[in-house]
Specification:
4 helices; alpha/beta; 5-stranded mixed β-sheet; 12 strands; elongated
């Protein structure tokens, strides 16, 4: 081949390559456009860039959506939910654990006397009950009441004008008037249920003993509220009753309105072992 032929051959090859480059560029542009339309990332750097990107994805354990585990991986098992915790019983509010523990297990009726303060003669009286076999207490009617003129004492003495703090059985009732219909406690109607003198503040005591429920503080259960015996001695005093309020503080009894006394007598049932829980709030 002549030098001129070889020269011509060398000069033609770049021309053909020049024609291929625009075609390759156009193809790459079309591929990029197609990838953009399909939502696929396109790297004009080619397979090397893609391979590098895939290697990085494999190296850091990333996934397309950031959540799905790699093939062969297992998600940790969800913790097993145990049985639901048992519901807490509905307790009588305003009592310490020690006082609640003193309520007999077989008692299903409570008269709660919640004093406004250790030295206060004012209180709130509420009936509570629970169904047989249940630990849930349900509140019933409530009234404002009075107690000892000098408040409450855990060591009551005769004449100190305080009411005793504690949990006491309610076993016997009585009064000047006949028992209200539905009364189930043993009831002693007697003309001796007439108070003498006047109250602590000089108020009349008339009608105070129309209805009474004996509180088993220093007395013999199963006897009339009028029974004078005091098993724990005269120094502690006795004849502490739940009776009709006379619009003043007492010497130690708890007083509530006459209508409330009738309701109490209609409600209390010896078969449910009623008790009175009495003292300042939070006792």
């Amino acid at each position: 081949m002549s030098k001129h032929a070889r020269h011509r051959t060398r000069t033609r090859r770049p021309a053909r390559l020049g024609r291929r480059l625009p075609l390759a560029a156009a193809g790459a542009a079309l591929a990029g456009l197609a990838a953009w339309l399909c939502g696929v990332p396109f790297d004009i750097g080619g397979d090397l860039g893609a391979a590098k990107g895939n290697q990085e994805l494999r190296g850091n354990g990333s996934h397309a959506d950031g959540d799905h585990p790699s093939r062969g991986e297992r998600r940790p098992a969800a913790p097993h939910a145990g049985p639901p915790a048992p519901a807490r019983p509905k307790v009588i509010p305003g009592l310490s654990d020690a006082t609640r523990a003193r309520i007999p297990a077989d008692s299903r009726q409570v008269v709660l006397v919640s004093g406004k303060g250790k030295d206060s003669s004012y209180n709130t009286v509420t009936l509570y009950s629970r169904a047989e076999g249940s630990r849930d207490w349900t509140a019933g009617p409530s009234w404002q009441g009075r107690n000892g003129a000098k408040g409450w004492s855990t060591d009551r003495r005769y004449g100190d004008l305080t009411s005793p703090v504690g949990v006491f059985a309610l076993t016997d009732a009585g009064g000047l008037l006949s028992a209200p219909p539905g009364t189930r406690l043993p009831y002693d109607q007697d003309e001796a249920f007439v108070p003498g003198g006047v109250g602590v503040e000089g108020e009349s005591l008339a009608g105070s003993f129309d209805y009474v429920v004996a509180i088993d503080f220093n007395r013999r259960p199963g006897t009339s509220p009028l029974d004078p015996e005091k098993p724990e001695g005269e120094d502690k005093g006795g004849n502490i009753w739940l009776h009709v309020d006379h619009d003043g503080p007492s010497q130690g009894c708890v007083g509530i309105p006459a209508a409330a006394m009738r309701k109490v007598l209609e409600t209390l049932d010896p078969a449910q072992h009623p008790v009175i829980v009495m003292g300042p709030a939070g006792m």
